């Protein structure tokens, strides 16, 4: 043996820091339902079989005389052992070090953060945590030692990985007679309180409930030397006729394919014939997966070609549908070319298009038939779907039709644009919106006063993505989107709800003079100062100039360094407000100019504060306020 090989022969290694942390959490278990470890190991075994099925197309010698994929669960009650054995692709020594000593999956990192946050807050985190699968490491919830022996297909080397989950693992060559002829054996040395998992009935129950539909047959060997008995037939669920599949079967399959624990909110199972022939089995999850807002925005759809798994992260659906889980099985794609070539095939491009359209039309159908179920989906995934409004020009109208909004009239519920337009006021020419941080705060914004007084509904847009699409969308049903914080509000044509229609009272000469004075005083700080049409109760507010970007969008762009200088705002003054009319009258009557100037600057700062910004100069603001109050007290 060479020196180098000797050094590689047996080693003890420390887990990557994140793995150690995850293992610690696993052992001091956060899961109430420990059964999940079996599902995770079976799913890894099935993936390994499917990977081999694919590699064997180009290299049939890899499967040799044992072409039929199989997962075997072996129990040894006396010794407290349970083993999951597969004849899949197997792992080389290096692959084992990579796969079983690090965390590759982004969802797992998010999962850990979630647990830690829940623990820090001493919150009831387990409910939430129980919704996510965490892979191989979950074995350590039930085992105090895990041995993995693996032999990669087509090689004559086997490796043994072993760990007690306490910070280190060992890795060493294994004798071929101790390893499967091909594939992997994972052996769990069960903890005393987990010995039940070596019982036939327990295992059968769990497999039936969680893994009955994995596309690889599963056999059970209930004791050393016993005859293997099939407990799952490995028939791919999606190849069966829809009418024969029960909702529970779909739900089980969804859980195993999506790694979720809930029920799907929507199941789509279609067999397309004609120009492209494929089967789509897709699910909208019942709750948000943890990696939903990962910057990579990766989808998790599996791509099969005639039941051979090509990849489990195929880019089949656009980024804004990344929450949809499931698979496509195509009959037309070529199998004997590389994965990359399959993914670049024009046939797949056509399938992508058709499948995206199909998912959207199924969502629309649900919105029509069961509004409450659809709104629940919107609650979870609306913010993601809205990304499509600026990314997918072709489907923008369909997406606008699917969109739901909080509005000033919706009383906490959701409104569609169709309903908004149907309820529009006489002479109303636009769909009005207000964008900002949270819907409740938006609802209290002074900009809405004039709209409320006229019974005009305003969309309250509080998702970060809103400011992006709303400025590029052309409109809906012929009506443009218009921000209530932008430009002059031409509301004069729309009658007030409570009072008889009347023109706004003439701005008196004194008020006009005062507004001119404010403008002169503020000078370069504002683009303009004008009498407001939109205010009824508040004295002042800030708006964007007629042709400038919405003020919130402007803040986002400036924050991201994509806008050099922000535009100056327009200060709108309510000519009917008591403070304004009395200040105007006082000025006419010869009040001290310094006092009126203080008041003018205070009004500007008041408008900034209402917009969530600090006064221009907090110290000067405090001094002015003190002077004006002192004067008020006589
Ligand atoms: N039975 C097995 N055969 C071959 N490789 C395996 C087997 N079990 C685990 N692995 C390897 O170990 C890796 C880590 O497994 P783990 O269950 O932690 O996450 P994962 O399977 O990648 O994630 P997911 O469960 O989301 O697919 C796998 O990606 C795979 O490369």
Automatic annotation (TrEMBL):
This is Chaperone protein HtpG. InterPro entries: HATPase_C_sf (IPR036890), HATPase_dom (IPR003594), Heat_shock_protein_90_CS (IPR019805), HSP90_C (IPR037196), Hsp90_fam (IPR001404), Hsp90_N (IPR020575), Ribosomal_Su5_D2-typ_SF (IPR020568). PANTHER family: HEAT SHOCK PROTEIN 90 FAMILY MEMBER (PTHR11528). Molecular chaperone. Has ATPase activity. It is found in: Cytoplasm. Keywords: ATP-binding, Chaperone, Cytoplasm, Nucleotide-binding, Stress response. The keyword Chaperone applies. Its main location: cytoplasm. It comes from the Bacteria. Residues 340-555 are annotated as: B. PROSITE patterns: HSP90 (PS00298). It comes from Labrys wisconsinensis. Residues 33-194 form the Histidine kinase/HSP90-like ATPase domain. Residues 1-339 are annotated as: A. Gene3D superfamilies: 3.30.230.80, 3.40.50.11260, Heat shock protein 90, C-terminal domain, Histidine kinase-like ATPase, C-terminal domain.
